[in-house]
Design brief:
The structure is a single chain. The protein is of the alpha/beta class. The chain folds into 2 domains: 281 residues, TIM Barrel; 116 residues, no CATH class. Helix content is 51%, strand content 12%. The strands form 2 sheets. Strands 1-2-3-4-7-8-9-10 form an 8-stranded parallel barrel, surrounded by 5 helices. Strands 5-6 form a two-stranded antiparallel sheet. Strand 7, helix 6 and strand 8 form a beta-alpha-beta unit. The structure holds zinc ion. Zinc ion binds next to loops.
Length: 416
C-alpha cells in the first residue's frame, strides 16, 4: 500500500512556477530533523479558472524534485474531486481528495440506514473513548439521525474510491475523504459514525477532512473560539485512533486540515496535540504562493510593481464577480479596500507589506490580501506577461515563497 507519511503538508502552485521554492522549505525543515512530505494540490476549479491541466502540476513538481535532489516521497493531490471530475487527474495523481460534501444531508435508502444501525450497536450508549475529554452519550435516535445524514455521502465516497482503485490499483493511491465544504461542522461523535460508515464501504482512507468549528477564510487567520477548537481537535484525534482499532481502518489514518492557509493561531494547538498523542496530520494550504509571487513582484519594482498594481485595480473593479465563487470562505470588509488611485502612488515595499501576512504589522491589510487571493484569474489572463515577470524576478519571488512556508507555517506547526 502506498502510505502517506505521518506529517504531510499541501501546497498550491497556481502557475506552476514555485514548486522549487516550495520544496526548498521542506528541505530546510528536513535539515531541522523533521520530515514532512510535500503534497502539491490543485482542484478542478483552479484548473478550470487558470486553463491548466493536472499533468502540469506533476511536471512542475517532478522538475523541482530532480533539480533539488529530493529523495523522499512526494505526492500530487487531485483536490476536491468527484466522479465527474476525477478522470483527468487519474494518470498524474497519487493522492485523491474525494469530496462528498454535496451528498451530506441527502436522503439515503432507509433500509441501508437500518442495516447500519443493526451492524453497529456499539455506537449507542455511553462511549468511553480513550483521550476524549467527556464521554459521548448517544441514543439510538442520535445515531440514526447522523447515519441518515451521512450515509449517502459515505456511499458516494465508496463509489469514487472504487472507481479510482479500479483505474490505478488500490495499493497505488492515497485516499482522503473531505467534508469541509459544507455549512455545519462535524462534531467528534459524528466523525466516529462517519468513519464507521466509510469502513463499511471499504474505503481505505488515510486522511479525513472534516469541517471544524469556526471560520477558515482563505489566506487569513482563524476566526473562532480557540478553546472549542482545541477540544474538538483533540477529541477528533482520539476518535480516529479509536476508529482505526475498532473498524480496521488504515493505521496511519489522520486528520487533514483544509486550512485555507495561514491559520497561525491554530498552529500551537495542533503542534501540542500531535506531540501529546503521537498522531500525524495533513495540513492543506490554499495556493497562497500566488500572493507571495505578487509580493515579490511588488518588491522588485518596475514592471513587476506596475503589473501588481494593475491586477489590484482590475480586481477592485470586478470584486463581486471574483468573490462570488468563494463567498463562504472569505470575509472582505470593502470599506478597508484602498482605491486603485491611492495604491498607484504606493511604493513596492508598502504594497508588499499590505499583502504579506505578518499579523500586527501596521501596513498589513487582510481585506486586500483576501481579494487578491481570489483574483488569480486576472494573472492567468495576463498570460506570458505575468509568467515572464515571474521568471525575470525568480530570485526575489522564490525568497518570499520559501520564507512564507518555512517561517510562518512550518516552524510554528512542527518546531515552536
Ligand atoms: Zn477543502
Amino acid at each position: 500500500m502506498l502510505l502517506l507519511e505521518r506529517f504531510s503538508f499541501g501546497v498550491g502552485d497556481r502557475f506552476a512556477h514555485q514548486a522549487k521554492a516550495q520544496l526548498a522549505a521542506f528541505q530546510k525543515l528536513e535539515k531541522d530533523g523533521i520530515h514532512v512530505a510535500p503534497v502539491w494540490n490543485k482542484s478542478n476549479r483552479e484548473h478550470t479558472f487558470i486553463g491548466s491541466e493536472p499533468q502540469s502540476v506533476f511536471d512542475a513538481a517532478q522538475a523541482a524534485v530532480r533539480e533539488l535532489g529530493w529523495t523522499q516521497h512526494w505526492h500530487i493531490d487531485a483536490d476536491h474531486i468527484n466522479l465527474k471530475t476525477v478522470d483527468r487527474f487519474m494518470s498524474c495523481s497519487d493522492f485523491f481528495t474525494i469530496d462528498v460534501a454535496d451528498s451530506i444531508g441527502k436522503p439515503a435508502a432507509p433500509a441501508d440506514v437500518q442495516a447500519f444501525l443493526h451492524r453497529h450497536p456499539e455506537l449507542v450508549g455511553v462511549l468511553n473513548i480513550p483521550g476524549v475529554a467527556t464521554p459521548f452519550s448517544t441514543s439510538l435516535a442520535d445515531v440514526e439521525r447522523v447515519a441518515a445524514k451521512y450515509l449517502l455521502a459515505a456511499q458516494d465516497a465508496g463509489n469514487i474510491y472504487r472507481h479510482i482503485a479500479a483505474a490505478k490499483g488500490e495499493d497505488k493511491l492515497i485516499a482522503e475523504v473531505s467534508m469541509d465544504e459544507t455549512d455545519l461542522p462535524q462534531t467528534p461523535p459524528e466523525l466516529l459514525i462517519i468513519l464507521a460508515l466509510l469502513a463499511d464501504e471499504h474505503v481505505r482512507l488515510q486522511t479525513i477532512a472534516p469541517k471544524f468549528t469556526g471560520r477558515f477564510n482563505k489566506g487569513v487567520d482563524y476566526v473562532g473560539d480557540l478553546v472549542q477548537f482545541e477540544k474538538e481537535f483533540n477529541d477528533d484525534l482520539a476518535v480516529i485512533a479509536h476508529a482505526v482499532r475498532q473498524y480496521g481502518l488504515p493505521a496511519n489514518l489522520k486528520l487533514s486540515v483544509h486550512s485555507g492557509s495561514d491559520k497561525f493561531s491554530l498552529y500551537p494547538i495542533i503542534r501540542k496535540a500531535l506531540a501529546k498523542t503521537g498522531a500525524g496530520v495533513h495540513i492543506k494550504t490554499a495556493g497562497t504562493s500566488w500572493l507571495e509571487e505578487l509580493i515579490g513582484l511588488a518588491e522588485a519594482g518596475g514592471d513587476g510593481l506596475a503589473l501588481t498594481k494593475e491586477i489590484y485595480a482590475y480586481a477592485l473593479e470586478h470584486v463581486d464577480e471574483l468573490c462570488a465563487p468563494y463567498a463562504s470562505v472569505i470575509d472582505i470588509d470593502r470599506s478597508h479596500l484602498p482605491s486603485s488611485a491611492a495604491v498607484n502612488t504606493w511604493t513596492g515595499l508598502k504594497l508588499a507589506n499590505s499583502l504579506r501576512h505578518i499579523p500586527g504589522h501596521p501596513e498589513f491589510n487582510a481585506d486586500m490580501r483576501q481579494l487578491l487571493h481570489v483574483s488569480f484569474k486576472i494573472a492567468a489572463k495576463a498570460g506570458r506577461r505575468y509568467t515572464d515577470l515571474l521568471k525575470a524576478n525568480e530570485e526575489i519571488v522564490a525568497k518570499q515563497v520559501t520564507e512564507n512556508i518555512y517561517d510562518r507555517h512550518m516552524r510554528p506547526l512542527f518546531i515552536n
